[in-house]
Amino acid sequence: MTIPEVKFYDEKARKFYKLVKTSTWPTVKISGIFMHRVKDVDPKTDSFLKIKTLGEIGGIGLDTCTGLGYTSILSARETKVEKVITIEKDENMIEIAKLNPSSKELFTNPKIELMIGDVYEHIKKFPDEYFNFIIHDPPRISIAGELYSLEFYKQIFRILKKDGKLFHYVGKPGIRQGKNYSKGIIQRLRLAGFKKIERVDYANGVLCFK
Length: 210
What we know:
alpha/beta
C-alpha cells in the first residue's frame, strides 16, 4: 500500500499536520501529538482493541470523534451493526482521511454516516436512547476538556439505549505530572448515570454499561 506524503501547516488552526507511515495503518501527527498509540501497539491494533472492548455489537453506533475513521470502519464491518454515525470537527482531518488509503471505507461503506461539526453540540440533537453502542475517543483533555465534562457525559448517557455500552478511551493523561485525571473521569461518568464502569488496561480506556 502506497502512503502519500501529506504534511502542511494550517494558519487558521495554527497546527501542523502530517500523515505518518507505520508498520500497519498510518496515523496523523498534529503539532507533535500522535492521534493513535504508536509506542506499544500500532494504529491498526490500537483501533481493533478499542472495538474489542465492546464485545458483540449491533444496531446503531456513534463514533464521537472520527479522526482517520478507523473505529468507524471496524465497527461498520460487524455484521449486526446497521449504521455508524461519526462526527468530526476538524475538516483538515477529513481531507487527510480522503488521501489515506486505509480510510477509504469511511467514504465508501454505506453503513457509515459522516457528519462535519462539533460533537459537543451535535450530541444534543440526537433522540433519547438512540444508540446501541458509543465509542468516545476524544483529543487529550488539555485540548478538548469539554468532551470530558459532566454535561457531555450526561448527553452520552441520555442517547445510549438501556443495556447499551460505551467505550471511552482515556489514555494516561497527567501521569508524567503526577496527576490522576482518570479518577475524575470515572467519577463524572458515575455522576452522569453509569453504574457499572470497568477499566480496560489493554485499550487504555473504560467500558461503561447503561
